[in-house]
Each structure stands twice: as structure tokens, then as C-alpha cells.
Input
Amino acid sequence: MTDANQPYIVVPAGGPQQAGVRPDEDLLEGLNRPQRDAVTFRGQALLIVAGAGSGKTSVLTRRVASLLRTKDAWPSQILAITFTNKAAGEMRERVSQLIGDRAQGMWISTFHSACVRILRREAEQFGFTKSFTIYDSGDSRALIKRLVKEHEADTYGMTPSGVMSRISKLKNELADAESYARSANMTDPAERIFVELFADYQRSLQKANAFDFDDLIGQVVYLFRAFPQVADSYRRRFRHILVDEYQDTNHAQYALIRELTRPPGSDAPPMAGGGGMMIFDAEPDAEDGASLTVVGDSDQSIYAFRGADIRNITEFERDYPGAKVVLLEQNYRSTQNILNAANAVISHNFDRKDKKLWTDVGEGEKIIGFTGYSQHDEAQFVADETEALRKAGIDYSQMAVFYRTNSQSRALEEIFIRSAVPYKIMGGTKFYERAEIKDALAYLVAVANPADEMAVRRILNKPRRGIGDVTETAIARYAADEGITFRDALANASALGVGPKIQAGIAHLDAVLAEASALMVPSTGELPPPTAVADGLQLLLSKTGYTDALRASRDPQDEARVENLDELVAVAREFARNNPEGTIVDFLTEVALVSDADDLEDASGSVSLMTMHTAKGLEYDAVFVTGVEEDLIPHRISANEPGGPQEERRLFYVGVTRARKRLYLSLAMTRAQFGEVTVAMPSRFLQEIPTELMHWRQSPGDVNSRGGTQSRALNARRGGPGSSGGFGGGGNTGRYGADLVPLPRRESSDISKFANRIPAKVRDNGDMELGPGDRIRHDDFGEGKVDLVTGEGAKRVAHVRFDRVGAKKLLIKIAPIEKL
DNA sequence: TTCGGTGGATTTTTT
DNA sequence: ATCCACCGAA
Output
């Protein structure tokens, strides 16, 4: 870029700048024109449409730095929201690199962390205390499970997870039980039960002084709406709000941002009871709402399943009239071949603004395809290839393997261990979801928030104290009779009418909890020492006999559990070191909100394994996208949901665009699931990639034409990729193996190699006329009758009752159907 | 109350 | 294949 001398058409809000050098000139170095515009724009609303790899993070951090440098904002006036804690950490890091310590005082965090911060301050306003617990999805599920049982809702076919996801969806729409009940069909007994469950769940949370994940957002919105003066204090504080990954925000998050960007004082209702009206001297722009910057890419929206609403970004200009829009389309990450493939695939999504990524780094290598006989075979290919790449000078830490579902990681792990390839699984089975860790944390919660009955119940009989269902119920009854909490009931073991042994057990538990409380939450008002949390945790684990019980066990897994607990204590010590003032509540907040995916890249020296969802926002020199099969990507479950297959395509797009130099797409002909071997078909997405971009080491046709299905991954040792030039799929060549004579170069990228052909062209039934009563035939589901057609245009959805497989919803435009 | 066995369901993605 | 809920025996 050589346009550094072009005049900027920028009017800094903070007053006239000196002619000549801008104070943020150095921040613009190396940026292209649109990127500069995005950094320097000053105004109410800015939408940055940032394609994959277009330098979005760089732009965002520089924009923040620029706001500070030009004195358009104080650090405390900035609120930057990212999707993960990791992204927040990186952003903070990069901003301080640009402008130094002034980064202190900014709020850079996730939606959830920011909301917790607000809720902790304001909790007392609406019936919670500062030390509220945060329920993760496991906790919510446990609670809902209990309620489902109590309400005998299972007789209506309700499952805990079903109820949970419905509640979550509703909360994401800012609905509560009451508002839902108003629109629900309350003559349906199942609906009535559900409403009761929902209400009961919410009451339980309130009683436990707890918020679930969704509440963290939703309750802040309620808070702001119910207490305008509280909202105003945040509106006055945050003058610049920046939101990353805006395409993945849900309605509650959208509403939160709307609340925050309102002009202060704008929604003060007629003051009830003459409460002190706040008069502010007209600070220059006190009447304006905060300036809002959102960054996103609708092609990378992959969280609709959990309530993300793509319209938040597509309709941004309508929501914020006069918004400036900046498009970043130049890609600085990948080779043109990779981008062409990505563009080709994503262009199959209709109903999207056309956008083409481009780069000036050149074509690069072809995309390598490989088909294994089994998932192990596929994994062996990946392992061999990582080895070859490392020999070619690429560090393991610059390689990543993606898959659609977590369960696919197993085969990869097995083979990686066998092949001695160092790897790290990102965000898989979570450390904080292990039973022993949850137990330990429940002990801490019992101390920090005694109102949380769930936590106390959880630890009641861990380790074994002979307390079973009967005793638990007795405690609950006693607590209810006396009007005290479940926790306090423990202090009166003798009154419960249970055996002496059990009484002693309860009394002991109560004493240990009390001792830990004295240590971690001194009632004298003085601050506990920084080590209090770690010490208290250790005290709880040893004095309750928890660790001893594990050590005494014969189960070999229990040894690992003890190690995990040691690890947790170490985490607590580390926390104390980083936060000398940190309380037990702060610690619990951190572990509730920090996920393992946030572990900064201590993946040094190892290959990263993760789901495609986790991969969002990351990039690697070499990327393996595995399991590129129908029913996996696109996932089978998505097929029935309107918009599902398109979201899957975006997910695949996200995976592909993570690669800088080399991209591998692999699949297996057979895949074992539920212990059964099933035949897999190549994903339709493969056929959306122009054949000339790919080089198949072993195409689906190669594998199938030999009819071989035996897996040889576990004993075959192959030649490295160096010896495997271009094996053609002749049929008599044997397999890709060590003992083969390379055939004359013949690329097997021909689409005819696909053994299981799936329609290469995307169907377009856009103009099919369909109405209730029509009969149709579906390629997979057979014949059925249309009940109802909803939606408009490209989004028309047919609700069909199939003769064989029951009711399905189909997107008419693309479903493989014909009218009969 | 605990333990062990059996049968059934289970796997989409995550702050 | 693996995890969980449920059941009957100690």
C-alpha cells in the first residue's frame, strides 16, 4: 500500500486535530484502504464486514488503540466484546502492545463475563446476592432433570435435554415462563406442564441465588429495563462499544447491545414515587448513545443452533440508520486455491450477499484429498502426513486437524499415539466437567453460596457418608419445616431422626464446611489472604476424606482423579498469584466462564485437534478437515432443520478458510458408530469444489472400485507422501501402499471417481408450487403428504408427513423432492 | 444404602 | 462402544 499520503476524510469527534501527522498514523501502517477506514471512522455506528482472514482482529485492535491515541475515548469508556475468553485475552494483549499500559481500565471480555461483572455489582437490586452461583449446562441439566421427575413430565415424552434446550431457546428470545404462557396453547396439557417446569426452574434458580448461562445475559437486559437509572450509569460509562463475531449474537445479546447504545436518560419512565431525578449538566455528547462497532461475517455464522440470529448482522443498517459499512475482502491468510475452494462451496448457499475473497499471494498448492477405508485408515493418513510436513519444515504447532463431532477425535487420538505424533485436543472433554472437579467446585460453592441447594446436595454423600435418598429427603423436609436453608439444616443433624452414624457424618460435614467458610469468607469483614481459596479447597478435600477415599479405591481411574484434584488446587494457587485480591467468588466465576478452549496455545510443539466450531477464529499453515462425509458434514441431524444444511456449509467453509498454505480434505468409506460399521458417502461439499483445485491421493472411487473395505491402518506402514506422487485409480493398482510401483502421473481428481454419486448440482425447486394436501416423493423419505407450507421465497418450508418416517420439515428450494 | 448387573439409549456443534 | 438408569441382592 502506498497511499499513506492520501488525505483522510475523518472528522475526529474529539476536536480538531493538528494538521500534519495524525497521532495514530503509525497504527495505520500496512493496512489497506478499507482497513484504514475501519480504524479511523468516527461516528455512531460502524459495521465491518470481515471475510475470513481479512485482518479483522488487527483492524479491531488498531481501532481501539486509535480511539485512545486520538483521545476520542478514555480506556474506561471502551467496552469490547469477543466470543471467547481467549480472543479477549489476545485482544487485550495486542492493544497493550500498540499503546502500552493504558489498556488498563478497558472492559475487554465476553458477553458472559461482562454481564457477570454487571450482575455482581447490581445483584442486590433484584433479590440476589453478590456471591451468586453460575450454573453451567451440566448444572442446569441436573436441576431440570430433578424437576422433570418431580412433575412427572416424562410421561408427556419430555426429556431433560429437550426441556433444557426449549428453555434456553426461549431465554435467548428474552421470554420467560409467563410471557411464553400467554402465547402458548394452554389447553394442551404438555404445554401446561412445560410452562410449570419453566417457572419452577426459574424459581429454583432464584432460590439458589444462581444464574444459568442464558440468564447472565437476559437478566442484565431485564435489569436495565427495570432500572433505567442503572442502565444509564453504564450508558454514560461506555461511550464506545465494539462487538466481534456479531453474526453469532442471539436476540438477548442483541437487546443488551441495544440497551447499552441508547442515549442515557432516553427510557426513563415517568418517575414513580418521585425518586431522585438525575439532572446532568449537558456534557457535550451526553445525549448521544454510545458509538457502536460490530464486526462479523454472515458466511461464518455457525451458531444458529443455539439461538444466534444472522439477522442481527444482515439488518444492522436498518437497526442503526446511517451506519457506515466497511467491507474487508482481501484475504491475508490463505492461498488462492484454498480461497477458490471456499468461495465455490459457500456460493452454493442461496440468500447470501455475494462476496469473494481474494489474495495476492498466488495459487499455492493444490488441495489434497484422501479417502481411507476406515476412520483409522484416514487417521493414519493424517498422522503420516503431519510427519511428512514436519520433515518439510512445518512445526507441529502450525498444523491442525478438524472434525465435525467430538467423537471423531478418538480414532485420531489412537493413531496419533501409535505414530508418536504429539497432539493436543482443544476443548474436548472438559477438565471442569469431570465429576471429581465438579464435586470439588460444589464444595467451594457450598461455602461461597450456601443458598445453592444443588451444590450442597451434590456433596452430601461424596465421599460416602451413608447418606442416601431417605436422609436427603429428611433434610429437605426439616429445612422446609423450619424455614431454613438446606445448608443450615445440616447444622442440626440430631433433629433429623436418622441413625447415629449418619448424624455424625452430617455433623462432620457441617463442621468442615464451617471451618472452610471461616477461612475463605471471614465474617469479620477483613479480607482473606490470597491463598485462602487454595488452602480452603485443600482443607475441604482432605478433612472431608474426599481424596483419601479416592486413594483407597482400587479403581485405577481414581488415581488420575486425585491428580486432577491436585491440578485444580494448582489452578487455585495460580489464580491467587494473578489476582491477589481474588475471592472465592471470583475464582468460581473464572472457572465457570473459562473453557478449556481458552487455554492459550500451550499447544506448542503439538498438532491441534478440535471441532470445526472450536476452530473459528484460528489459523494454521496446514489444516486437515476430516470426515468429509454425508451425515457428518453436513451432519445428519441438520438435514431436518430449516437452514440446517446451509449452516453446515458455513461450518465447512470456516474449516477450510483456517488454512494458510496447505489444506487436506479426507474421509473414510466406512465408519464405526455405536459399535456398528456403516458405509459412508462423500460429502456433497466435496463436489462443490472445482476438480482442478484438488489432487486426490486416493479418491472415493479408488477405494470403492477395489471393493476393499478391510482396514489396514493398524498394521500397514506406508511410504511417506514423498513416494506417493499421483496414484491413479486404475482399479488394479492395489492400494496406496509401500510396495507399489508409482504409475505414470495421473491425477485422480475426476468427479467420476465418486463411487456414490450424489447430485453434483444443487437442486433448485424454488418455483415448485406446493400446498396443503399435495403428495410428494422424497429421495430418502419416500412418499408423504404436505400438511402446511410456511415461509416465503427461498425460505419456504414444507411440513410433510411421510408415510414411512413421519413428520419432517423441508426447505422446498433444495429438498430432493418431486410433486406427484 | 450400596453394589453390581442388565438393558436401553446414545453423538452436533458451546459461552 | 460407552454411559446411564433401574433393579434386586447383600
About this structure: The first strand of chain A starts at residue 45 and ends at 50.
